[in-house]
Amino acid sequence: METFKDVISGDQPVLVDFYATWCQPCKMMHPILEQVKEALGDKIRIIKIDVDKYGTTASYYQVQSVPTLMLFSRGEVLWRTSGAMPKDRLLAAITQFIG
To answer: Is 27 a catalytic residue?
Structure first.
């Protein structure tokens, strides 16, 4: 089974959405993340981490509010932000890190 560390340590950039099921802005981000995946295809992998289920991981990355989005490549954090954002702003922020 693939671990979180395995996923973020690969060559493919990974956008991680730290979210909570009770969070309204997190729910708003779901279709936006699907549109981002559609726009970028295989250039990126997007995963969601429920902070209530995986509190240790959220704590390790000092996630204090949800949603928090983090872009990883080879285990390194390239970019992070908290709060919901429109697709255009999210794409503009992360495409500078994607080849």
So the answer is: no
